[in-house]
Design a protein that fits this description.
alpha+beta; 434 Repressor (Amino-terminal Domain); 3 domains; two-stranded antiparallel sheet; 18 helices; 6% strand
Length: 389
């Protein structure tokens, strides 16, 4: 068998990048742990096939293992997760690979839009940080059609979340929702690391919502990222429902939190609806039904507007989070793969990509590579979606 003359230090770098032990890698490759260590030290060389499997196992391109030194991994988006003056934690390989995947899809879609002669979106960067929050929130509601009628059509806040995504997509915003890297169910994203990110492009704007997070947090994250688009600011976000909007932190993040809160639950409407003569939890349930958002989002708004104190806010937030964890533990992940694919890859982008493939303007192999599935599946799903329209 041919020998792969890979760079030992690159093997060590790639293994440490994914926080894997020699034993874990050896088990996947079905070799002795000492052999993996020898590859890192240069005492042995893997076969060409083993080197390919090693690269797959370490989630790096095969060519990386031949570099003379580790590549400098830079995040092309501002990291807004940090408190002012503090260095943010290093982003994981799962995040980096997810962002690379999304950017690759965005680049393809931008080229498609340019060929179609599509116009730039005028709401991207329409406002700036510091502009009147209620004016920005009102403009978002107007452009996306977030009316009382839309809320009334939704029977639950989960339905309203789906409607929000649909409204965003209808205006040219690509919304990706995923809990894993691509379609790899063994590589989970971390909700503690990030809740979402935004690419504020005026032709193909991107919103990514971390599906590993609770649904109660996802709806706030979605609108928070929408606010980023309206001020033309890309970035990686981790909005925290536990802290006040006035809590020290990144100025852009605080501003987008304020806008999101006003979009979902307008201050003037909330103050008129909150009843001091009934129990807090009853207030939360009533307003959750009225605004079609989770009780956690209403709870955060009540705390922000001084309808209840911090102690009561924290007690109820812990209660609702514990309920969500119990529900999630019982719930089986899954669903129709067509729907999962549309959510993971943006409904708009997926449908355009499949349509281009079915009409012969894009190869099934290239479409499969972008969507992270095989070419046969591309054709089957494309035909199924075409038949459903």
């Amino acid at each position: 068998m041919s020998t792969a003359f890979i760079t030992p230090r690159l093997v060590r770098w790639a293994r440490q990048r994914v926080h894997a032990t020699h034993e874990a890698i050896a088990a996947k490759l079905r070799v002795d742990p000492g052999r993996v260590a020898a590859w890192e030290e240069g005492g042995e060389r893997p076969t060409f096939r083993q080197a390919h499997d090693l690269a797959d196992c370490l989630n790096v391109p095969f060519g990386y293992l031949y570099l003379s030194s580790p590549p400098v991994e830079k995040t092309p988006l501002p990291d807004l997760r940090t408190l002012t003056g503090k260095r943010p934690k290093k982003l994981s390989p799962e995040f980096s690979d997810t962002l690379d995947d999304i950017i690759r899809k965005q680049e393809w879609y931008k080229e498609y839009l340019k060929e179609e002669g599509r116009s730039r979106l005028d709401f991207i960067g329409r406002f700036a940080v510091g502009d009147d929050v209620k004016q920005v929130a009102g403009d978002i509601q107007r452009v996306l059609g977030l009316s009382d009628e839309l809320r009334d059509e939704a029977s639950t806040w989960e339905d309203f979340f789906t409607a929000l995504v649909r409204q965003c997509e209808s205006k040219g915003i690509l919304v990706f929702r995923n809990s894993v890297v691509g379609n790899d169910n063994h590589r989970h994203l971390s909700a503690k690391e990030f809740r979402g990110f935004t690419i504020a492009d005026d032709l193909a704007p991107i919103i990514f919502v971390n599906g590993q997070d609770s649904k109660t947090a996802q709806i706030f994250t979605l609108v928070h990222e929408v606010a980023h688009l309206w001020i033309g600011q890309s970035g990686i976000s981790n909005p925290n429902l536990r802290t006040r909007i006035s809590h020290p932190g990144n100025n852009i993040e605080r501003y987008c939190n304020r806008v999101a809160a006003e979009v979902l639950i307008p201050e003037s409407s909330f103050l008129l609806s909150w009843k001091d003569d009934i129990a807090t939890e009853e207030n939360l349930r009533e307003l959750s039904r009225a605004y079609k958002v989770s009780t956690s989002v209403v709870l955060r708004r009540a705390y922000e507007l001084d309808a209840l104190g911090y102690g009561e806010f924290l007690r109820l937030l812990k209660l609702y989070e514990a309920r969500w964890r119990r529900i999630r533990a019982k719930k089986q992940d899954g669903g129709h793969f067509h729907n999962i694919l549309l959510a993971r890859n943006s409904s708009t982008l997926t449908r355009v990509l499949l349509e281009e493939t079915l009409e012969g303007r894009f190869s099934p192999r290239d479409a499969a590579r972008l969507l992270g599935i095989n070419a046969t599946t591309v054709e089957k799903i494309g035909e199924a979606l075409a038949g459903a329209t």
